[in-house]
Design brief:
Blueprint (H helix, E strand, L loop, with lengths): L6 E5 L4 E2 L1 E9 L8 E3 L7 E4 L15 E4 L10 E8 L10 E11 L6 E7 L7 E2 L38 E12 L16 E8 L9 E14 L9 E5 L6 E18 L5 E16 L6 E8 L4 E8 L2
Antiparallel strand pairs: 1-11, 2-18, 3-13, 4-7, 5-6, 6-13, 7-12, 8-11, 8-13, 9-10, 9-12, 14-15, 15-16, 15-17, 17-18
């Protein structure tokens, strides 16, 4: 097993300058997915289905998500989880890094009940919070949403002492990532195939506050590579609003003489492309896009930026 040298945990509304996200698997929960493992305990709340609650009542794409019960409020004194298996079986090019993106929405008792992520590289024998490196090396945490608000900080502890998400939160897109050969390639002789387990935990304390729980949708497995254009100074000032309902504005730091916009769906399809001349911002109407997560690739002659945008209705 190769060692982790970098851990990143943040909102994917952050810009990745001169880099491209290659997406290899998307879990939209509209069809069965063999690498999601639900805890078989009778007290486990996680279900795959259509949300039917007051606040947790929609999905970011399609009609299904994975949720702490599709109908009922969550009880007190509960710990529920599901695991996501990651390896060469669902991402064939874990050759230098591994990123997991997911959209989520929550209704819980703030700083008491909520969700947190843990990881295991030994088949579930030991688990570490995502703030803890799995082996050794430097890591960085940058948990800022699209409005500049901090969340899931290491001093925002839940009732069990873990750092986690809590409170009433609308849809947000978050990603975690590890770089430098997380998983051993199966071409080694003899082959050594490591599997990363990412556990999505939900926990509640002894007080029943009649809250709805945690809803997750559109889990995306990807890697991030350098753009062929090369690294350049940023030229996009902001992309807003994000999430977006009716349209997206792409604002530039200065007037751009020649710029192109490409929009890709989660399954890698090019759904829009257009070139613009002498503009300081682009108004993109997304009315024809179905709800989901999209890659907005903005290109000039000398640079390229990728922005993740969540489309809602």
């Amino acid at each position: 097993m190769k060692n982790l040298v970098f851990l990143l945990f943040c909102s994917f509304t952050t810009v990745i300058h001169a880099q491209i996200a290659d997406m290899f698997d998307t879990l939209d929960f509209e069809s069965p997915y063999e690498y999601i493992l639900l805890n078989s305990d009778s007290a486990n709340l996680w279900q795959i289905g259509t949300p039917q609650k007051t606040w947790l009542n929609d999905a970011t794409s399609g009609v299904n998500g994975i949720i702490t019960d599709t109908v009922a409020l969550y009880p007190s004194n509960n710990h529920s989880y599901f695991d996501l298996q990651i390896g060469y079986f669902n991402n064939p090019v874990f050759d230098f890094n591994c990123f997991v993106m997911f959209s989520h929405k929550m209704d819980s008792d703030t700083l008491h009940d909520g969700g947190y992520l843990t990881t295991s590289m030994d088949g579930g024998e030991t688990w570490n919070d995502v703030f803890t490196p799995l082996d050794f090396g430097a890591y960085q945490l940058d948990n800022i949403d699209h409005e500049g608000n901090f969340y899931y900080q290491n001093y925002d502890t839940l009732c069990n002492g873990e750092s986690g998400f809590s409170g009433r939160r609308n849809w947000e897109t978050t990603f975690i990532g590890w770089t430098v050969y997380l998983v051993e390639p199966p071409t080694l002789n003899p082959p050594v195939i490591d599997t990363l387990l990412v556990r999505f935990n939900f926990i509640s304390d002894s007080l029943d506050n009649q809250r709805e729980g945690w809803l997750i949708d559109d889990i995306v497995l990807c890697t991030i590579r350098n753009s062929s254009i090369g690294e350049n100074e940023p030229f996009v000032k902001s992309v807003y609003p994000n999430p977006s309902i009716s349209g997206v504005t792409i604002a530039f730091l200065a007037i751009e003489p020649d710029v192109a916009l490409e929009v890709y769906s989660n399954d890698g399809r090019l759904v829009f492309t257009e070139e613009y001349n002498a503009v300081q911002q682009i108004e993109y109407p997304n009315a024809f896009l179905v709800p989901g997560v999209y890659q907005f690739v903005v290109k000039t002659k000398n640079a390229s930026e990728v922005h993740q945008v969540v489309v809602q209705r």
